[in-house]
């Protein structure tokens, strides 16, 4: 590449060979000179087509560029010069690296314009591009969900419309004020039920039945029954209104809901019918075991807490780090428990009776808990214990940083996606309100307040959205989008 001001053009009367052809390209104000022998390495690219377009007339020239100066033999393009400087590396190095600060989607669109295949993009840049695509798809999915909630399709029957309304009412607290009230009530019932479960185990608040067995206070039982009734009604309504009932039933959080409700009804059945089929003591043991399963309802809080959901996702993404942590601890526990057992055998009052029994000592030592129920008494045993808890601190500390990073990255990403989806809706409202005057209402407000049909509302919003930045919501392709300029 040479700057155009430093080069002398060769003008000959006869036809020039493609290898000797020199073309000047002006991209966004940056002028550069190319030679045919370099461009013809990839004949399907736009720059290579410029070499042969001069003989085809102005129609052929303007089909490839935005403007052309025949006096200077200079082609003009209204494109991003920074991305262009990266793309032309393919003619000299056979691969392309995306500079830091360039939007991956913009860069992909630039490569498509210059007709350069994505296979020349380096693997690290492809990874960045795929991550950005996933983010755009997530934003589009969130926006589409909001669009679907703006109205009800007229083609749906009354039951379908009622089903969709119940689903929004129970699953989407942000959809309306009553839905937020229901979400708060559900959260309070979870807390009350958990508190009742804990308070019911206090001996001073328990009562004695005619057989002399302690049982929960009847008032607490009544509160528990009300809470279970709320949970049951909530689950049934969500199941009935669910668009995909099989997916709903197999979802992890919904399985947790079932586990939180089921013990109450099973214990109720065993209490009234089980006594006829088995001994009373066996019935009481079974009921007690089932009542312990009530602790599963505390996991229902994850439905109303974005922090718990983020933590769950971070743990899922950190399986490798957690596996390394468990492996380090398992190796250390085995080694130090075997050494501790061997070193303590010489002491007559040793507490290390066997290697499996020493596992417990190694676990509480490496995790720095140290209950003190098992401890070494020899000098070598104490030295082994000191080394074991030092190694335990190191083994635990090593994988913690990646796990924290996964949590922070996912949490920040969710906030960015939420903000981007809201901004997209604001742009759609502004575009839909253009031409209606300063006092006209936005399209979503019109649809919600005037009760217009949902399909018409959604289509009008999508049309107004056509010149913004998420092309996944529209089937049309546009020459310039917001993403092409988000440097």
Automatic annotation (TrEMBL):
<feature type="transmembrane region" description="Helical">
    <location>
        <begin position="322"/>
        <end position="339"/>
    </location>
</feature>
<keyword id="KW-0633">Potassium transport</keyword>
<keyword id="KW-0472">Membrane</keyword>
<dbReference type="InterPro" id="IPR003131">
    <property type="entry name" value="T1-type_BTB"/>
</dbReference>
<keyword id="KW-0631">Potassium channel</keyword>
<comment type="similarity">
    <text>Belongs to the potassium channel family. F (TC 1.A.1.2) subfamily. Kv5.1/KCNF1 sub-subfamily.</text>
</comment>
<dbReference type="InterPro" id="IPR027359">
    <property type="entry name" value="Volt_channel_dom_sf"/>
</dbReference>
<keyword id="KW-0851">Voltage-gated channel</keyword>
<dbReference type="GO" id="GO:0001508">
    <property type="term" value="P:action potential"/>
</dbReference>
<keyword id="KW-0812">Transmembrane</keyword>
<dbReference type="Pfam" id="PF00520">
    <property type="entry name" value="Ion_trans"/>
</dbReference>
<dbReference type="InterPro" id="IPR003968">
    <property type="entry name" value="K_chnl_volt-dep_Kv"/>
</dbReference>
<dbReference type="InterPro" id="IPR005821">
    <property type="entry name" value="Ion_trans_dom"/>
</dbReference>
<dbReference type="InterPro" id="IPR011333">
    <property type="entry name" value="SKP1/BTB/POZ_sf"/>
</dbReference>
<dbReference type="GO" id="GO:0051260">
    <property type="term" value="P:protein homooligomerization"/>
</dbReference>
<dbReference type="Pfam" id="PF02214">
    <property type="entry name" value="BTB_2"/>
</dbReference>
<comment type="function">
    <text>Regulatory alpha-subunit of the voltage-gated potassium (Kv) channel which, when coassembled with KCNB1 or KCNB2, can modulate their expression and their gating kinetics by acting on deactivation upon repolarization and inactivation during maintained depolarization. Accelerates inactivation but has relatively little effect on deactivation. Coexpression with KCNB1 or KCNB2 markedly slows inactivation.</text>
</comment>
<keyword id="KW-1003">Cell membrane</keyword>
<keyword id="KW-0630">Potassium</keyword>
<dbReference type="InterPro" id="IPR003971">
    <property type="entry name" value="K_chnl_volt-dep_Kv5/Kv9"/>
</dbReference>
<keyword id="KW-1133">Transmembrane helix</keyword>
<dbReference type="InterPro" id="IPR028325">
    <property type="entry name" value="VG_K_chnl"/>
</dbReference>
<dbReference type="InterPro" id="IPR048010">
    <property type="entry name" value="KCNF1-like_BTB_POZ"/>
</dbReference>
<feature type="transmembrane region" description="Helical">
    <location>
        <begin position="246"/>
        <end position="270"/>
    </location>
</feature>
<keyword id="KW-0407">Ion channel</keyword>
<feature type="domain" description="Potassium channel tetramerisation-type BTB">
    <location>
        <begin position="23"/>
        <end position="124"/>
    </location>
</feature>
<keyword id="KW-0406">Ion transport</keyword>
<keyword id="KW-0813">Transport</keyword>
<feature type="domain" description="Ion transport">
    <location>
        <begin position="180"/>
        <end position="414"/>
    </location>
</feature>
<protein>
    <recommendedName>
        <fullName>Voltage-gated potassium channel regulatory subunit KCNF1</fullName>
    </recommendedName>
</protein>
<feature type="transmembrane region" description="Helical">
    <location>
        <begin position="383"/>
        <end position="404"/>
    </location>
</feature>
<feature type="transmembrane region" description="Helical">
    <location>
        <begin position="177"/>
        <end position="202"/>
    </location>
</feature>
<dbReference type="GO" id="GO:0005249">
    <property type="term" value="F:voltage-gated potassium channel activity"/>
</dbReference>
<comment type="subunit">
    <text>Heterotetramer with KCNB1 or KCNB2.</text>
</comment>
<dbReference type="GO" id="GO:0008076">
    <property type="term" value="C:voltage-gated potassium channel complex"/>
</dbReference>
């Amino acid at each position: 590449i040479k700057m155009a001001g430093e080069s002398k053009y060769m003008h000959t009367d006869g036809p020039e060979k493609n290898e000797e052809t020199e073309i000047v390209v002006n991209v966004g104000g940056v002028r550069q000179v190319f030679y045919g022998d370099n461009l013809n390495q990839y004949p399907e690219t736009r720059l290579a087509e410029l070499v042969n377009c001069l003989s085809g007339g102005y129609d052929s020239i303007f089909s490839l560029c935005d403007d052309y100066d025949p006096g200077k033999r200079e082609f003009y393009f209204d494109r991003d010069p920074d991305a262009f400087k990266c793309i032309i590396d393919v003619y000299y190095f056979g691969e392309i690296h995306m500079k830091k600060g360039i939007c991956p989607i913009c860069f992909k669109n630039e490569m498509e314009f210059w007709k350069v295949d994505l296979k020349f993009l380096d693997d690290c840049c492809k990874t960045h591009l795929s991550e950005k695509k996933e983010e755009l798809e997530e934003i589009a999915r969130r926006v589409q969900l909001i669009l679907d909630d703006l109205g009800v399709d007229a083609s749906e029957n009354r039951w379908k419309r009622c089903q969709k309304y119940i689903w929004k009412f129970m699953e989407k607290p942000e959809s309306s004020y009553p839905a937020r009230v229901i979400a708060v009530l559900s959260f309070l019932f979870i807390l009350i039920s958990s508190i009742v479960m804990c308070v019911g185990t206090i001996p001073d608040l328990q009562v004695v039945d005619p057989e002399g067995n302690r049982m929960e206070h009847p008032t607490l039982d009544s509160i528990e029954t009300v809470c279970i009734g709320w949970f049951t009604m909530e689950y049934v309504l969500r199941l009935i209104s669910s668009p995909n009932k099989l997916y709903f039933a197999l979802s992890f959080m919904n399985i947790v809901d079932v586990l939180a409700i089921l013990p109450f009804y099973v214990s109720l059945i065993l209490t009234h019918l089980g006594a006829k089929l088995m001994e009373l003591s066996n019935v009481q043991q079974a009921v007690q075991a089932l009542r312990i399963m009530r602790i599963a309802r505390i996991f229902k809080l994850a439905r109303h807490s974005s922090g718990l959901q983020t933590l769950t996702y971070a743990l899922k993404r950190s399986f490798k780090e957690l596996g390394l942590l468990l492996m380090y601890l398992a190796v250390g526990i085995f080694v130090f428990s075997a050494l501790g057992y061997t070193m303590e055998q010489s002491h007559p009052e040793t507490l290390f009776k066997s290697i499996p029994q020493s596992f417990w000592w190694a676990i509480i030592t490496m995790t720095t808990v140290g209950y003190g129920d098992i401890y070494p008494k020899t000098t070598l045993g104490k030295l082994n214990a000191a080394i074991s808890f030092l190694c335990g601190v190191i083994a635990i500390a090593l994988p913690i940083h990646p796990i924290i990073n996964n949590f922070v990255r996912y949490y920040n990403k969710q906030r960015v996606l939420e903000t981007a989806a809201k901004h997209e809706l604001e742009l759609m409202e502004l575009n839909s309100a253009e031409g209606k005057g300063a006092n006209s209402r936005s399209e979503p407000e019109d649809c919600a307040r005037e009760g217009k049909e949902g399909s018409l509302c959604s289509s009008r919003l999508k049309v107004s959205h056509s010149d913004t930045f998420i092309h996944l919501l529209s089937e049309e392709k546009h020459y310039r989008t917001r993403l092409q300029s988000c440097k």
